[in-house]
From TrEMBL:
The keyword Secreted does not apply. This is Carbon starvation protein A. The keyword Transmembrane applies. InterPro entries: CstA, CstA_N. It comes from the Bacteria. It is found in: Cell membrane. Belongs to the peptide transporter carbon starvation (CstA) (TC 2.A.114) family. The chain crosses the membrane at residues 6-23, 58-76, 82-104, 125-144, 164-181, 193-215, 235-257, 277-301, 321-345, 369-387, 393-412, 424-443, 455-472. It is a multi-pass membrane protein. Its main location: membrane. Residues 3-157, 170-390 form the CstA N-terminal domain.
């Protein structure tokens, strides 16, 4: 219990102390007109108040990642808590804040445009393709994961067969229809209206799990503590902590997907002083969600048991069992609904961000419904085809693409800070750390080059140093070069 309480307190304190420094380093201008007013169009550039923007941002970034990822990360034991806390405070929240605020200073531009401006036009094309692939994978993953959760929940009440392919297809089609509407309609119509309701469900369900963890500790289960003896890799298959843990737990610590979401909210923020709460604060909230689910998974199931349960399907099995065991059937179902809300909101925002990213790249205005459908319909056709792929394969590629995007966003943020003569180490250090993990992962994993891990460590170190030196040498030449819009 002590580890859990201290971890949550560290996350909260991190928001007030380090979050304040990050904001000061950016140098906000409360008197500057934001894109929500300067470019107001009634569709994507719409002023919305601070609480609404905050809950939309949280639900956009918190898919199944801060639930499924920490459940999988629980296989490593309490060492996973270190990455959640430190990663969230010094990497993830910093990443979300800077990319959101830099976008706000650039007319709500998405990551490809920002990469093109600050790193080079060639990078703009590469990042656009990369972002499009990531958002498409996110959309597909966040169709399949909530669909399976819904089917699992309905089967508990004997409403559907949990193995029925037909039932799963119907659920998938319903989710796709909702995603289509939320992708093409103005942001304040569906997303702005329904997200507060979804947010209420999510907050209540997550809070219930957290309270139950503390209330029932030592009676029906026991929270795991981080000690010198438990500071080791407890994964049943001895999967390496470096680099796999940093890809297993992404949302809840550091996630590149957030760099595709923050620009949407940078188009609806009313004042720059709201940025720390909306961008940095909501990432801290996601870290708390991750801590709750990682702690619950470790408390209820030993490593091998947890591993065998996950092998039965996806981490949705653990979500179902944790919720029912800890809260009973009624409150447990509410908790499951709270988890279902997360991927659905992130899925629809992924498709919306993909539409806007492509539109920005090809310079196609999005005021007319026809122009929206020209981009949206082909996206949904491709997404439906991808739902036929194996979930585990999709999840693996999503994880790597996700963290590679985080590295790009951190280096874009670093370049911005360098050219504006700010402390760039706040983004460069986590960027270098994650770049090393990116290289190691793609070199050593079967989905990459399948090189022995020890050799991959060495090659990755050389590549990381070379990339960083090249980036820095070219960045300092541009000091004072760029003007904010």
């Amino acid at each position: 219990m002590i580890t859990f309480i201290i971890s949550v307190l560290c996350l909260i304190i991190g928001y007030f102390i380090y979050g304040s420094y990050v904001e000061k380093n950016f140098a906000i201008n409360p008197d500057k007109k934001t894109p929500a007013y300067a470019m107001q169009d009634g569709s994507d550039y719409v002023p919305m108040n601070k609480p609404k923007n905050a809950i939309i941002q949280l639900l956009n970034i918190a898919g199944t990642g801060p639930v499924f990822g920490p459940i999988l990360g629980a296989l490593y034991g309490p060492v996973a808590f270190i990455w959640i806390v430190l990663g969230c405070i010094f990497a993830g929240a910093v990443h979300d804040y800077y990319i959101g605020m830099i976008s706000l200073r650039n007319k709500g531009a998405f990551l490809p445009t920002l990469a093109g401006k600050y790193i080079g036009n060639g990078m703009r094309h590469a990042v656009n393709a990369f972002s499009a692939i990531l958002l498409l994978l996110v959309g597909v993953v966040f169709v399949l994961s909530p669909a399976k959760l819904i089917q699992q929940t309905l089967s508990t009440y004997s409403l559907v067969d949990k193995t029925s392919a037909t039932a799963l297809l119907i659920i998938i089609c319903c989710i796709f229809f909702y995603y289509l509407l939320s992708t093409i309609l103005p942001i304040d119509k569906i997303i702005g209206w329904i997200y507060p309701i979804f947010g209420f469900i999510m907050v209540i369900s997550t809070f219930s799990i957290g309270v139950s963890l503390l209330y029932n500790n030592n009676s029906t289960y026991q929270l795991k503590e981080l000690t010198f003896s438990s500071l080791t890799n407890m994964h049943p298959n001895a999967v390496s902590i470096f680099p796999v843990l940093f890809f297993t737990i992404s949302c809840g610590a550091l996630s590149g997907f957030h760099a595709t979401q923050s620009p949407m909210i940078s188009r609806t923020i009313q004042n720059e002083k709201q940025g720390r709460f909306i961008f940095y604060g909501m990432m801290i909230a996601e870290g708390v969600i991750a801590m709750i689910w990682a702690s619950a998974a470790m408390a209820l199931f030993e490593g091998q048991t947890l591993y065998e349960l996950i092998k039965q399907g996806t981490p949705s099995v653990i979500v179902d069992k944790v919720s029912i065991l800890m809260l009973g059937s009624t409150l447990g179902t509410l908790a499951i609904l709270g988890v279902i809300v997360l991927p659905i909101t992130s899925g629809n925002s992924a498709f919306r961000a993909l539409r806007l990213t492509i539109a920005e790249y090809i310079k196609l205005p999005q005021r007319k419904m026809f122009h929206k459908l020209v981009i949206t319909l082909p996206i949904f056709v491709i997404a439906y085809i991808l739902t036929k792929m194996d979930f585990e394969i999709l999840w693996r590629y999503f994880n790597w693409a996700n963290q590679a995007t985080a590295v790009i966003a951190l280096f874009v943020s670093t370049k911005y800070l360098i050219v504006n003569k700010k402390n760039y180490l706040v983004t460069l250090i986590p960027g270098i750390f994650m770049l090393y993990q990116i290289y190691t992962y793609i070199l050593s994993e079967k989905i990459g080059f399948n090189i022995p891990l020890n050799i991959s460590y060495i090659i990755a170190a050389v590549l990381t140093v070379g990339t960083t030196v090249y980036f820095y040498k070219h960045s300092i030449k541009d000091i004072g070069k760029f003007k904010e819009d």
